[in-house]
Design goal:
disordered C terminus, two-stranded antiparallel sheet, 6 helices, mainly alpha, globular, 4% strand, single chain
């Protein structure tokens, strides 16, 4: 079947990258943010998010959701973002991801179309990978509890979930990793890298 051959290898590469991501964190509890020094990782996830958004747009005749999905509003101003601590940023992103995961899981039960179901499954896996990863970053004692109420909106269009995910990765997550890299990558590295070209 045309189009299926690159999928396994792409998925395998993603899983291998995430595994090395998580292993790095486990092995280096003292400085888990060291892994963000390679800006190619977040750029890779941005490209994947754009690809997923494009692919779900190619699914034909996706039905509107019977039960609207509650999605986080992930817009932010740069000034507000800079005023927050890294822990506050982390918890905010975790709240956004938790809401997005709930929406994707709920939508999976409403979509029978093979193309839409496959893309929703992939969206859930990608968002969950970030959700698990960010729980390993913590500047405060104790485990993260999902006791947050992020700003949200209801949507019946499945494509809105992919738009929200792409905006979250391209926005808050990219800036969060860049903020961590600004601090962590200068420690022990005399030749710290410039910010990614996309950072403004």
């Amino acid at each position: 079947m045309q189009g299926r051959s690159p999928q396994p290898s792409m998925e395998l590469n993603r899983l291998l990258l995430l595994t090395s991501f998580l292993l790095h964190v486990k092995e280096d509890r003292a400085s888990p943010t060291r892994l963000v020094c390679d800006s190619r990782l977040i750029q890779k996830y941005i490209v994947e998010a754009k690809d997923m958004e494009k692919r779900v747009g190619q699914c034909q005749a996706l039905p509107a959701l019977r039960c609207p999905a509650v999605l986080p509003l992930v817009d932010f101003t740069f000034q507000q973002w800079k005023s927050k601590s890294n822990e506050t940023k982390r918890r905010e992103i975790l709240c956004d991801l938790a809401l997005l995961l709930g929406a994707a899981a709920g939508a999976q039960g409403q979509v029978s179309d093979e193309c839409g179901a496959r893309q929703l499954s992939q969206l859930y896996r990608h968002a969950n990978s970030f959700f698990l990863l960010l729980q390993t970053f913590s500047w405060e004692a104790g485990h993260w509890e999902p006791s947050c109420s992020p700003h949200s909106m209801e949507q019946t269009h499945i494509s809105s979930m992919f738009l929200t995910y792409r905006q979250l990765v391209q926005g808050k997550l990219r800036f969060f990793f860049h903020d961590l890299a600004t601090v962590s990558c200068k420690q022990g590295q005399g030749d710290s890298r410039d910010p990614p070209c996309g950072a403004q």
